[in-house]
Write a structure and sequence with these properties.
It is a single chain. By secondary structure, the protein is mainly β. It is built from 1 helix and 12 strands, in the order αββββββββββββ. The strands form 2 sheets. The chain has an 8-stranded antiparallel β-barrel. It has a 4-stranded antiparallel sheet with strand order 2-3-6-7, with no helix packed on it. About 9% of the residues have low confidence.
């Protein structure tokens, strides 16, 4: 076999290999650098330190005449996120959320045996902040299931009913979850999927009546789109 024949066959083999690889590459869309997500959240309640109302008796000894318990109820809210991929395993996100937790104040252990009384205040809670998302494996166009860990900090504002009193503070979230890509395609919109995560949310003491930080469990589910 001549050298010319060998060279021609090698060139033909390379051409066929490159031609067969091109359609496969065309079927794999890019992973996308920008992600927009929105969905509901559930945040658990938290109990604050109870108060004791005391009086001084004739002998100078104090006596508890009433206790006051205070707590936030669990609540359903909504959260939106815009993320930007800055590394194969790292996204930075801007996040905003809205929820309506209820603040309950309950009196009990009345020295005059009065029945317990609960007063409720419906709050409006707005939060704006940022977060980092670290994927446990590099995100790629062919990776549909992506477990991750996340941590974020947000500025929060609580409005009391009927909006005459406002409290501001910070909320810190840390947790993890998973993203599942449901559809991929070529073009501007490169993917659609679902995100689920579990976080621990810490509200700063400036948001609580007992001047202490409080931790609540949080679950979020969202639909995301990648561009």
């Amino acid at each position: 076999m001549s050298a010319h024949t060998i060279a021609r066959r090698c060139a033909l083999a390379m051409l066929l290999a490159s031609g067969s690889a091109m359609p496969a590459a065309a079927q794999t869309p890019p992973a996308g650098r920008i992600e927009i997500a929105i969905g509901p959240t559930w945040t658990g309640g938290a109990s604050m330190t109870p108060l004791s109302v005391t009086e001084t008796q004739a002998g100078g000894t104090p006596r508890t005449v009433l206790t006051i318990a205070r707590d936030w109820t669990s609540t359903i809210g909504v959260e939106s996120r815009i993320g930007v991929r800055i590394a194969p395993r790292l996204d930075l996100e801007a996040a905003g959320s809205y929820a309506r937790p209820q603040l309950n104040v309950t009196t009990a252990n009345d020295v005059e045996s009065a029945s317990p009384v609960t007063a409720s205040d419906q709050l409006q809670e707005y939060a704006v902040g940022g977060a980092g998302v670290w994927f446990l494996r590099p995100r790629g166009a062919d990776t549909r299931t992506q477990p991750f860990v996340t941590a974020g900090l947000a500025y929060a504002r609580q409005l009391h009913q009927p909006g005459t009193l406002a409290q501001t503070g910070t909320m810190f979230d840390v947790g993890g979850g998973v993203k599942r890509v449901l559809m991929t395609r070529s073009g501007t919109l490169t993917g659609v999927g679902l995100r689920a995560d579990i976080r621990a949310r810490t509200r700063s003491r400036s948001l609580a009546l007992d001047d202490r930080a409080h931790v609540s469990p949080m679950i979020g589910v969202a639909l995301f789109m990648r561009f």
